[in-house]
Amino acid sequence: MSRCRTSTARLSLALFAALAINSAFALRPASDTNLVLVLEGDSLTDNGNVFKLLGVPNSKFYFPGRFTNGPNWVDYLTDTVTKFVKNATVLNYAYGGATACANSETATAVPVIKDLGNQTAAFLADAAAGKVPKPSADTRVVLIQWVGSNDIDSALRQLAAAQAAAAAANTTGPDLQTAGIALATSIVTCRLTAAQAVAASGAVSDIVLLPISPLYQAPAVPAEFKAAVTQLVGFIDGALSAQAKSLAGTFSSALKTRLHWAGDSSWIDKLSTTIVPPFKNTTYPCLWNPRSVLEKIDNLTLCTDVEDRYFFDQIHPTTRFHKHFALKGLLPRLQQLKGVVPRRVALNRFIV
């Protein structure tokens, strides 16, 4: 055998050995790393907090404790992560109906619901009491923050009421652009204020900011508002992205916390078109809830083809989308963020 062939053979054997070692490592549950996921958010993330307090959403129609027809993205992510990270803990502080900023309407109607500020306070209290493992060389504590859609929903309802009142009084209604900028500014400020409070406490190693969910896709948003909501979501995402990039250095150096921006809402938007088999109905939900999902209603009508639908009700996607979001959308992004979730967790079958 020639020297060239010998070298090639040795290189092939080395590459094969390296791949075998990496594959074995990927398939073996991690025992050297502790991973704590801390979740803050609203009904997309809540997997039982509101249900324990209020018994809603109605489990006659909804999967118990979830605002959909089955497990939500938290359940799917937890199930996957715990299979590959031996010492994994998930702490969920999300509440259905929660807003990024304090909301007097919600506080009056359903005072048990914790907005982002109160969710953050609850987490920090648990951390101070020693109920949450502290970040260390072998322990990553990662906070995932996903909230803001209910702020938009509330503002839209208030805006519509103000416009109707102005029309009835034959006066000028509120300026949409001014209202939109004010709303976006408040959401960004509230989210970053909460993130800074957590970082300053030293209770986490990483904070991941998820974009506003693509609310404009929801059947609940009237056709005449979809363009404005799309523009508003994009504006909020842009402001969050810019602020996250601006503050990342300060968080890392002064607060010893890595701040990550998970990208704008477009990647969530596109997920609805990449699911297999594809959704046959992306327009109409499986059920239409005429009142707030936080009210227990017994006379709802369910569809018979929920597996073909993108939305379960007029706001919340089906469990099929939650699974696709968790494993094909969020998890690969978490793996791309240094020190958040080990790449061995998902393997290639989950990477897009």
Automatic annotation (TrEMBL):
Coiled coil: none annotated. InterPro entries: GDSL (IPR001087), SGNH_hydro_sf (IPR036514). It comes from the Eukaryota. Keywords: Signal. The keyword Protein biosynthesis does not apply. GO terms for molecular function: hydrolase activity, acting on ester bonds. The keyword Signal applies. Residues 1-26 form the signal peptide. Belongs to the 'GDSL' lipolytic enzyme family. This is Uncharacterized protein.
